[in-house]
Amino acid sequence: MDWTLLKSVSRSFYLSMVWLPPAMRRGIALGYMLARATDSVADTSRADTATRIFVLRQMGRAVAGELAEDEVQELMRLLRGSMAEAQSKEAEAMLLRRFDECLLQLAGLPDTERSLIRRVIATIVEGQLWDLTYFEGGRQVGSDDDTRRYTYLVAGCVGEFWTELGLATMGASFCAPERRNVMVQAGIRYGQGLQLVNILRDLAEDAGRGRFYLCSDALVWQGRAARYLADGLDYSRRLASFRLRFTSMLPALLGLKTLRLIAQRAGNEKVKISRRAVYACMLKALWLSVWRRAF
Hints:
By secondary structure, the chain is mainly α. Helices cover about 75% and strands about 0% of the residues. The chain has two domains: about 1-135, Farnesyl Diphosphate Synthase (Orthogonal Bundle), CATH 1.10.600; about 140-295, Farnesyl Diphosphate Synthase (Orthogonal Bundle), CATH 1.10.600. It starts with a helix and ends in a 5-residue tail after the last helix.
């Protein structure tokens, strides 16, 4: 794993990786890199939608091991060429140019880890493709169930993956195995809560692009997001080590802080958490990780 490239793509995620137990670190980092690469293609507004859809599908097939060698080479030609050139950030362009290195690392993982990564990337790509096709020309989701499904596809599945990978690589050192199903469901809600925070924070910006991810009252969704993030804190407290609890708890605390700012500003301006607030959340996560409530 090229940790320098990971750090350049997401400094905050890189910092959280320091706290992960070594058994989980490689699988989580590689899964993130692959998902970030597909996300970069999905968000490449300088490329037409049809091209992005084709490249995303090929990336998903490549991760699944379904492409012949010549098809992988053709995909890399597109990623290193027009897709990389269309990126606004050099780090994301570099990630696309080195996508084949991620595929090689994936092939070298144990079967269980490789299978879990393939499953989560397939789900994420499904969500990205839905986003590109559904909102082509501007549109609003048809129901709350559409919103729930979308948040599962692009984020809830990550909580599921995190739990399954932790249990596969660490067993009882991750969490009590008999609580697998409870933890998986809590992890899904946690991921959905984090994605809802993104949706609520970007309502005005998405509306300007003709994208409406909510069809009912945003205040109702703020309440749901808060409940899902509370589930995330509960999930984090049930993890078996301080490192895991801290790594898992911090995003929930940042998400809850963002929700409070959204409520205060009532959509008048885009919310951005200050560095001071981030440090405060880190300290709170440290405290809560040490003080583990008994279950």
